[in-house]
Design goal:
Blueprint lengths: L4 H16 L10 H10 L7 H12 L3 H12 L8 H13 L3 H13 L6 H13 L3 H10 L4 H4 L1 H13 L3 H14 L5 H11 L5 H13 L6 H14 L3 H13 L6 H14 L2 H14 L5 H13 L3 H13 L6 H11 L4 H13 L6 H13 L3 H13 L6 H13 L3 H13 L6 H13 L3 H13 L6 H13 L3 H13 L6 H13 L3 H14 L1 H17 L3 H9 L8 H14 L2 H14 L4 H11 L6 H14 L8
């Protein structure tokens, strides 16, 4: 009985996902999946609508599977993709930001004159904006600008702000003009960032004409915020006198400048030493200025941060705190956490302003600030944060202390991190094992092995004990530096303590043993993984084969593969081995190995053949691989590209 389209889509997607879980890396398209689909017998059911049903929703998060299935379907004789199948795969690729693939498919769409739904262009443009490819986003928008209303105000305003923020003001003006022409609603974010950047180099009359255009159309903008951004932009461009003159033009158009806008001009004149002008501005401020609406700026800053317009959020935040204007603690937290990713110095200003107001960062903000200070290697600032918060008795629970230990360790400040642990104990808090592991990891990373061993002893003597991560940290370090006996002792110790090794434990130890040419010991360790869990052994097998082959011990690798049971062995490990043999010119060994596979596990040959054939295009030495493929062909005649 022929399944319904929905049943067929479910069956096909489940088969693809299940089979891809067995490949390395998981959830990626490989030739073996084509074999899976052929066995499923779904070729005759294929249609553009079925392809779309399989991809959306089932393969949306798995772009490699979505694109692989899309191309596989097109191999069917007489099959032609339509808008519905293109839309589904473009949606998947946009979500995962696979821009090269998106561009190829859009080129195909344009060549074939296929009409896509506006929602597809919306998701592609949004994906480009998030991926910081604003010019690419503009090029797509420019091709489909007639669909601006359907693409929607959120995406159009987001693009307008992104282009202006990135310095593409000419492109931004073209988007603005199209939005006005198509009647797309402008908001404070889109128009605000655009006019902020535009006005710096534009004639005042041109800036006024844009402000007038917005007034004519139904736009959701905040006049006072727009006024401040224009004034700030002019002052940033050293056009202070023009900014002062502009107050009247703005006020006449209901863009009411608030006290913050007047302060910007006041401070700009003060920097120039123009005392008379300062007094004029202050006089006008007292007469015409309005108090800034804290909640309006709060919402605008949150919009900037959510759109990743962090430079603009930073500048506006600095205007507020430098003038000591009201700002809520949640806004300061957002500024500290987000701005620290691009400008740690500015983030520290926000942090210190927060502390001066007797407010404190949330744990989330502390985590973001600490992570970004570590990323920018600002260890002195990290220590300053710790000392300021410590002096204010901020650290009162395990979570906040643990966060600080973690960041000090990441920054390589091992002594200070250990001091925090001792402070925790002094204050009656017991450090958890994750804090000790952070410190252990930092000791190993900084090659402080003696302190690491003392810490190991302290963890036991203090009653905290160790866990799998502790063992993995030390086993990996000892294996890396060639102290393989210590690594083996730890491995045996964990087994005696009933701690089950994981893939990290095994791969670290196997690598160290192979580098020391202790292959028999490595094999004994691998046997332990087989005894523990066949699936675990299957997971680490490929890596083990790589370690052996890197040391050139091909006979041992062959012996290992030939001795595996069916629940552990799989085609991928044979492919890896054969590729190493091909690169080393070991043709005779590879032929013997293929013969063995053909005799003992002939079902593996088609998958091995397909994988080797797929590697030909990227191989620097294709001739040996062709000889291996010929041997497989002779052993079990199968086409290389069975479509």
């Amino acid at each position: 009985m022929k399944p319904s389209p929905r049943e067929a889509a479910i069956r096909i997607s489940r088969a693809i996902i299940s089979a891809s879980n067995q490949s390395r890396p998981t959830r990626s398209w490989s030739p073996s999946l084509e074999q899976t689909l052929h066995r499923l017998g779904c070729h005759d059911l294929l249609s553009p609508s079925l392809v779309a049903r399989v991809i959306d929703p089932f393969l949306l998060p798995h772009h490699s599977l979505a694109l692989g299935f899309f191309y596989w379907a097109s191999q069917k004789p007489g099959f032609t993709h339509t808008s519905i199948s293109y839309q589904s795969v473009l949606k998947s690729l946009s979500i995962s930001r696979q821009f090269n693939a998106v561009e190829r498919l859009l080129k195909d769409v344009k060549t074939q004159k296929i009409l896509l739904h506006s929602s597809v262009y919306r998701s592609v443009i949004a994906s480009y904006i998030i991926g910081k490819r604003t010019q690419n986003a503009f090029l797509i928008f420019n091709e489909v600008s007639a669909l601006s209303r359907e693409i929607g105000p959120d995406t159009c305003n987001s693009l307008l702000a992104a282009l202006a923020s990135d310095g593409c003001v000419v492109y931004a003006q073209r988007v603005f003009d199209e939005m006005i022409k198509q009647g797309v609603t402008l908001n404070s974010l889109g128009f605000g960032v655009f006019i902020w950047r535009f006005c710096r180099n534009a004639e005042l009359g041109t800036t006024l004409s844009l402000l007038d255009e917005v007034i004519k159309h139904a736009s959701k903008i905040n006049g006072s915020i727009i006024a401040l951004l224009v004034i700030h932009g002019l002052c940033q461009a050293s056009r202070v006198s023009e900014a002062f003159e502009f107050f009247e033009e703005l006020r006449r158009r209901e863009y009411k400048p608030d006290f913050m806008a007047y302060r910007i001009v006041t401070e700009a004149f003060r920097l120039k030493g123009s005392a008379d002008e300062v007094q004029k501005v202050l006089k006008k401020k007292r007469k015409l200025g309005v108090a800034p609406k804290e909640n309006d700026y709060r919402e605008f800053i949150f919009d900037l941060i959510s759109e990743r317009r962090l430079p603009e959020a930073k500048e506006l935040g600095e205007v507020i705190i430098n003038g000591n204007f009201p700002i809520r603690n949640d806004v300061l937290n957002a500024l500290v956490g987000s701005v620290s990713s691009i400008d740690p110095g500015s983030a520290m200003l926000f942090f210190k302003f927060m502390i001066s107001k007797e407010s404190f960062p949330t744990l989330l903000t502390l985590n973001n600030l600490g992570r970004n200070l570590c990323k920018h290697e600002k260890t002195d600032e990290l220590l300053e944060v710790f000392h300021i918060l410590s002096s204010k008795n901020y650290f009162s629970d395990l979570e906040s202390y643990s966060a600080m230990v973690s960041f000090l360790c990441k920054a390589g400040r091992v002594r200070e991190a250990y001091g925090v642990l001792q402070e925790m104990k002094k204050n009656g808090l017991d450090p958890d094992i994750s804090s000790y592991n952070c410190l252990m990891e930092a000791c190993c990373r900084e090659d402080l092995l003696r302190p690491a061993k003392r810490l190991w002893d302290e963890m036991f003597s203090s009653g905290y004990g160790v866990n799998l991560k502790t063992y993995n940290i030390l086993i990996q370090k000892f294996s890396d530096i060639g102290q393989i006996q210590d690594a083996q002792w730890l491995f045996q110790h964990m087994l005696e303590k009933g701690v089950n090794p994981d893939a990290t434990t095994y791969t670290s130890l196997l690598e160290g043993l192979c580098q020391e040419k202790q292959f028999e010991s490595a094999f004994e360790v691998f046997k332990k993984s087989v005894e523990q869990d066949a699936m675990l052994a299957r997971t680490i097998l490929n890596t083990f084969i790589v370690y052996i082959c890197k040391e050139g011990n091909f006979p041992f690798a062959s012996k290992l593969l030939c001795g595996l049971t069916n629940d552990v062995g799989h085609p991928d490990s044979h492919v890896i081995f054969l590729k190493y043999l091909a690169d080393a010119g070991e043709i005779s060994t590879s032929i013997e190995h293929i013969k063995w596979v053909g005799n003992s596990s002939p079902s593996m040959l088609p998958t091995i053949s397909a994988a080797l054939f797929a590697s030909l295009a990227s191989s620097s030495k294709p001739e040996p691989i062709l000889k291996i493929l010929q041997t497989i062909q002779d052993k079990s005649p199968i086409p290389y590209n069975d479509s």
